[in-house]
Design brief:
The complex is a heterodimer of chains A (220) and B (344).
Chain A: E1 5-16, E2 19-30, E3 34-39, H1 45-54, E4 62-65, H2 77-84, H3 97-109, H4 125-138, E5 143-146, H5 155-170, E6 174-178, H6 182-188, E7 191-195, E8 201-205, H7 209-217
Parallel strand pairs in A: 3-6, 3-7, 4-5, 5-6
Antiparallel strand pairs in A: 1-2, 7-8
Chain B: H1 2-14, H2 21-28, H3 32-54, H4 61-92, H5 105-118, H6 125-153, H7 157-180, H8 184-194, H9 203-221, H10 224-230, H11 234-239, H12 244-266, H13 272-284, H14 289-313, H15 320-338
The chains are: A alpha/beta (220), B mainly alpha (344).
Chain lengths: 220, 344
């Protein structure tokens, strides 16, 4: 049951214009997977995630949350989540009753319910990052792709976000996050995807994760 | 007269201060408070319009009907139109200082008007006003068309903004070149257009402006949630499934029509387009377009009618574009200091 495969990627190549960033990318995304995507700057982490959103299917939506969303003054957290549900809301930007309920439960899951009516410009980076995750949950994402969710956070918030991600996975959502915080990420992930500087790709699960990271980053 | 003037000055002084005490307390009570704000705003608008009507003392019904009422209505319509245009432009370009005036639309209109007045054709005086308006409209639409076409090419809002400002520079340079080689007669005619006025319109022009405003509102209203999401950046909007370029085009189309029409009839009027949306955001304490676009219509109308009131009430009637700047600049500076608006 836990092994239900949502997506199976086989021999994918990602490139930036004519420049091939990485080839031979093969891995499965299963329900409840917590996947850490690591690699040096420019190795193609963001490109890989964007490519994945391109094969997103209805019913098993993959939703990506970009690294930095501007905190625009003048919107409450709840309004922000409603706005992000662009294709789900009606012309006036309203959600259906059922979606409103799933919005409330998403905020509860992420411990954001007390901040629901706060202006997003007054939220901390960690809280706002969680608002982005909430919006993916309301949009019924089966796979949530997060581009460096911990990049702008202090140690405490970093761990809080990663624990939140792990909790989502335990509920059956698959999560792929890219990060440079290999230590913190290692503790929560079930699977590692590593993009090497020389366009090599490694994926590893469970005990082999450490070896995979080392083979990409600490070869000499 | 003096009483009316003092009263309207008092009201006007209240507008930029709406952030402080009483009004913001109303705004804090979401929902119910907004209704109060609407009522206060509408009463302010009606009082100012009334004061503007009475400016210049008692007059015969004919004067009221054929001179003053069209002038006041034109001011209200022009202010509302420019505010709606500016509000949409600020959002799609994610820049607190964007408005059709800065994006070269007014410059395009000025070039049209300059060509009409200085090209050397001698026109019968009856047709002159209409020709200038038509040429200005054509110029504004041409400039807006170039910007719309460019928006398909440019990926980011920032490059589009720079393009618009550069377009304005080039067109203004052409206008200056034309002015330099013109005789004093046509210069004066061009100048009277570019000084801006709400007095050159009759009921038929008002009908056109109302129709265009209705189209502009319709386009904007169908675009509110799109305008909301593009504030969070093109990347986020795309990832949320929003058709970013369609949203941008629809907003620019609405802006162009509104700005071109107003500029053709009333001359190049800046500031309302920039200031009114900021006033709306400040008073209603939100950036949600479903609230601030209608609110901008109100603040824009109030600002324009205030500017007209000041130009009419001053000892020598002042050009509206000047009073608009005198009214507008302090508000812009206040906004900048308070740090309200987008992009920090």
């Amino acid at each position: 049951m836990a092994d239900r495969i949502l997506y199976s990627i086989k021999d994918m190549t990602i490139s930036h214009g004519d420049r091939v960033l990485c080839s031979g990318i093969s891995f499965d995304i299963r329900k409840g997977d917590c996947i850490m995507l690591c690699g040096a700057n420019g190795s193609g982490k963001t490109t890989l995630m964007k490519a994945l959103t391109g094969i997103s299917r209805k019913g098993n939506e993959m939703i990506m949350i970009p690294a930095r969303i501007p905190k625009v003054e003048g919107f409450t957290l709840k309004e922000f989540v409603r706005i992000s549900c662009f294709n789900q809301s009606d012309m006036a930007g309203r959600l259906s009753e059922q979606q409103e309920r799933s919005l409330d439960s998403a905020l509860k899951t992420l411990h954001l319910n007390e901040l629901a009516d706060r202006d997003i410009s007054t939220l901390s980076d960690g809280e706002f990052q969680k608002a982005g995750i909430a919006s993916a949950l309301v949009r019924d994402a089966s796979v949530i792709l997060l581009d460096e969710p911990t990049a702008f956070l202090d140690a405490e918030n970093r761990i809080a976000i990663l624990r939140t991600l792990r909790a989502l996975c335990n509920n059956g959502t698959a999560v792929i996050f890219s990060t440079h915080d290999l230590h913190d990420g290692y503790d929560v992930c079930t699977k590692v995807l590593a993009l090497g500087a020389d366009r090599t790709f490694r994926s590893a699960e469970n005990e082999e994760r450490k070896a995979a990271i080392e083979s990409i980053f600490f070869r000499n | 007269m003096q009483v009316i003037l003092n009263f309207s000055k008092l009201l006007f002084n209240l507008i930029p201060l709406a952030n402080i005490p009483i009004l913001s307390n109303f705004a804090a009570m979401k929902g119910t408070g907004r209704t109060y704000l609407w009522i206060i705003g509408l009463i302010t608008m009606v009082l100012l319009a009334g004061a503007d009507m009475l400016c210049g003392g008692q007059a015969a019904a004919m004067v009221m009907l054929h001179l003053r009422a069209p002038r006041v209505l034109t001011a209200l319509l022009a202010g509302a139109s420019l505010a709606l245009a500016g509000g949409q432009m600020q959002s799609v370009l994610r820049n607190p200082l964007a408005d059709p005036h800065i994006m070269g639309v007014s410059a395009g209109a000025a070039l049209g008007a300059a060509l009409a007045t200085m090209s050397g054709f001698s026109l019968s005086p009856a047709l002159q006003g209409l020709t200038v308006a038509a040429a200005a409209f054509a110029g504004a639409i041409a400039a807006a068309g170039i910007i719309l076409a460019a928006s398909r090419r440019f990926k980011t809002a920032a490059t589009l903004l720079i393009f618009g400002v550069m377009l304005g520079f080039i067109v203004n340079a052409l206008v200056s070149a034309l002015q330099f080689s013109s005789d004093s007669e046509s210069l004066k005619m061009f100048y009277s257009w570019s000084a801006g006025s709400f007095s050159n319109t009759g009921w038929s022009e008002i009908c056109i402006m109302t129709a265009v405003l209705a189209i502009g509102i319709t386009l904007a209203w169908r675009n509110t949630k799109g305008l909301d999401i593009v504030l969070f950046g093109d990347e986020f909007a795309q990832m949320s499934g929003a058709p970013v370029s369609k949203i941008r085009h629809r907003a620019l189309l609405s802006c162009s029509l509104l700005a071109a029409t107003v500029t053709a009839f009333c001359g190049p009027l800046g500031f309302v387009g920039i200031v009114a949306p900021h006033m709306a955001r400040g008073i209603f304490r939100t950036s949600a377009h479903r609230t601030i676009l209608p609110a901008s219509l109100l603040t824009g109308a109030v600002t324009a009618v205030t500017a007209d009131l000041i130009s009419q009430a001053s000892p020598n009637v002042l050009p509206v574009a000047s009073t608009m700047a005198i009214v507008g600049v302090p508000i812009i500076i206040y906004i900048l200091i308070k740090g309200k608006g987008y992009g920090g």
